[in-house]
Amino acid sequence: MRQKMLNKFEELYGDGGDIRFYFAPGRVNLIGEHTDYNGGHVFPCALTLGTYAMVRKRDDRTLRFFSMNFEHREVVESSLDDLHFYKSAGWTNYPKGVLWAFNQKGHPIDAGLDILLFGNIPNGSGLSSSASVEVVVGVMLKDMFGFDVTMIDIALLGQYAENNFNGVNCGIMDQFSIAMGKANHAIFLDTSDLSYKYAPIALDDKKIVITSSNKRRGLGDSKYNERRNECETALKELQTVLNISSLGELTEESFESAKEVIKSPVCVRRARHAVYENQRTIKAVKALEENNIRLFGELMNESHRSLKEDYEVTGVELDTLVESAWNTEGVIGSRMTGAGFGGCTVSIVEESAVDHFIEKVGKEYREAIGYNADFYVVDIGEGAGVVSD
Ligand code: GLA
User: Fold this and answer.
1) pLDDT tens for each residue of 83-111
2) 2-200+381-386 has which fold?
3) Whose CA is nearest to atom 11 of ligand 1?
4) Is pTM, for the whole model, over 0.85?
């Protein structure tokens, strides 16, 4: 990868100088969906798929961007003096947003950059290709300019850029798991205070299979912000009778006994998902610690039902994939992962059943939806960093 990118880099930007190389993974969340902006728990892991970045400092204030994923496009030029969001700037708003966030937070970028990216995360799949770009740029800026920032700071700067530059009000899960991932481990993260622990994922004879619905998120971002607002409304109403600062502080019982104060039935369902999903995530991690993978799988299935019925973020494509998986032998658990409204499902499948799974779910999906799903049998990789030789 390095050599291929170096050839392209030199072709685009010329040779010589101090050219550096970085990587940030994508992520998949095993359980704990739409809990990260509700002060709840999540359980994501980093993938070995991700975004590579090659970069060199310039001696002026020009920024140049090129992605090998869009070979036919031109180099996009910008400037450190024009760090604004332009719809027409497309994907370059992600790296630009991170440069802007570093500036805003007291880490001034004082030299232009020639940047080349290449990603092998399926685009728009809900495996966090945008957070992967944000974190790879964060790691790059820390290294190139010697900023004294931790990996958690880089995750927060990425989230700050996504929220305030790109206008998506996401939580911290994606950037955190991408920055802090660890091979063969998932991260049990409490988003209320960012305390976390690594949980080994030793699946023995089972595999993690990601299935892309190939339905892009489309209107997802506005719906995402809408869900977030609905949870906030429910929280405000609950606060009239409960002394809480987030939905993540509630058990199922405390929620059930107070939910009458939430005025809209829709907001009751949104909050119910947030509360139950958080408790489910805690139970799932405990099940895994006790080596009870069957229970872990059942909790994944329940998570999907809740995301479908209470949170309403699944849609026919994801439901078709998950229901087909549930009816396939050798499947321990299956659910949508990420924001929803398209994107991917994650399934835990007996290794011996993976080929059959891909064939059967693939066929049922094609018949029901009219186009193909894509399957990825994935490994859990390391978080972002400098790529050494
Ligand atoms: C997106 C957001 C995350 C999280 C998930 C849903 O991936 O970026 O912060 O809210 O959706 O769990």
Assistant:
1) 999 999 999 999 999 999 999 999 999 99
2) Ribosomal Protein S5; domain 2 (3.30.230)
3) 339
4) yes
- 330 closest CA partner among 301, 357, 306, 310: 357
What are the strands of the beta sheet with 185-190, ordered from one edge?
Answer: 41-42, 185-190, 195-200
Is 379 catalytic? The answer is no
Helices (H), ranges, the chain: 2-13, 93-104, 129-145, 151-164, 173-180, 220-238, 252-258, 265-289, 293-309, 316-326, 354-369
Centre of ligand 1 from the C-alpha of residue 281, in Å: 15
Cβ proximity of 258 and 241 under 8 Å: yes
Beta pairing class for 76-79 and 374-378: unpaired
Neighbours of 320 (CB within 10 A): 20
Q: Is the pLDDT of residue 141 over 90?
A: yes
Residue pair 268/262 in contact by the 8 Å Cβ criterion: yes
21 CA from centroid of ligand 1 (Å):
28
Q: Which two tokens stand for residue 103?
A: 């500036």
Mean pLDDT of 277-300: 97
Can you give the pLDDT at residue 168? 87
Query: How does pLDDT run across 161-192, given as a tens digit for each residue?
Result: 999 999 888 999 999 999 999 999 999 999 99
